[in-house]
Amino acid sequence: MTLRLVLQNSSPASASPYRLLDEQDRELTWANDFLDAQRLRQLSPRSLRAYGYDLLHFARWLQPTRRPLAQLNQSSLLDYVRSQLDREPNPTPSTINHRLGVLRCLYRFRYGREIPGGKSHFQHTYTTRSPLGYGRPQPKLATGLRLRQPRLAEAARRAGCTSPVTPHRLRHSFATEMLRLGVSLPALMRLLGHKDIRMTLRYVQVTQQDLQREFHLARLNNTPLHSIPKLPLPATTCPVRADIPALHDAIDATRHLLQLFRRQLHDDKSRRKLRRLSQRLLNLGHELDSLADAEK
């Protein structure tokens, strides 16, 4: 039976345009349901195409073995990897790892659990820190078959990376670094090939240093919401006239200077004294108003 991947542009917006069909144009339900779910996650058409070809490659290998998908285990994955390495030209380790990653996602989607071990078990430990950058390194256990990528592993070792480095993790690092350099989220979404900004946000990691930097920049750009009013003070201490409005101007100017001086003090006792003195001046202004009303 011949299997192929076709592009159907007439598919609904909620369905993947890439479909796996057999020679009688019947759909492979287990593969197309998974592609439809990735479409709902707003994966780009390029990613759906890559997922489709990975599933097509696996389906062509699975078909002659007559194994049901439910019986897939780590031993089956080992046979699948061997069959790829025995063929010419040999795929790169990153290509095989990407296919294995798609199969793990497919199995979790279909059965809600990880692929069982079978006769073969693949495990390795590594250390990781909190996303906010604090705390002690915590040991983690990674399961599943994964090929070693010599060049990437050597570059990670030289860079001092303590956790496993994969091309997809580098993609996350690229997104985070671009955001720190000032690239906007819409531009970053286009660079990553996403259709939805929510998918882009999954790639961005905010650390404690990022929070501190943003808070510091906000403090530098801070402008006082309630600025202190500036009253026109007379050029000399002697008023140009001797009447009640001139006295009111002198009281207002004195209270204004008291407020400015009180804000510079750190002693609470002195601040309270100046506040009481300012209140007395305010009461004095009220008495002047009463005097003006009496004269009328």
Characterization of the model:
There is one protein chain. With 296 residues, the protein is mainly alpha-helical. It has 3 domains: 4-111, no CATH class; 166-221, no CATH class; 244-295. The protein contains 11 helices and 4 strands. The chain has helices at 29-40, 45-65, 74-85, 93-111, 150-159, 167-180, 185-192, 197-203, 208-220, 244-263, 268-295, and strands at residues 4-7, 18-21, 123-128, 138-143. It has a two-stranded antiparallel sheet with strand order 1-2. The mean pLDDT is 81.
Question: Topology, please?
Answer:
Layout: E1 4-7, E2 18-21, H1 29-40, H2 45-65, H3 74-85, H4 93-111, E3 123-128, E4 138-143, H5 150-159, H6 167-180, H7 185-192, H8 197-203, H9 208-220, H10 244-263, H11 268-295
Antiparallel strand pairs: 1-2, 3-4
Helix pairs in contact: 1-2, 2-4, 7-8, 10-11
Distance between the termini: 111 Å
* Shape, principal axes of CA atoms: elongated
Enumerate how many helices there are, as a single number: 11
The helix/strand order is EEHHHHEEHHHHHHH
- Classify the oligomer: single chain
Class derived from helix and strand content: mainly alpha
What fraction strand?
A: 5-15%
Tell me about the biggest sheet?
2 strands, antiparallel
Low-pLDDT regions: none
**Any idea what the radius of gyration is?**
36 Å
Helix content: 55-70%
Count of individual domains: 3
Q: What is the arithmetic mean of pLDDT?
A: 81
Strands across the major sheet, in which order?
1-2
Number of strands: 4
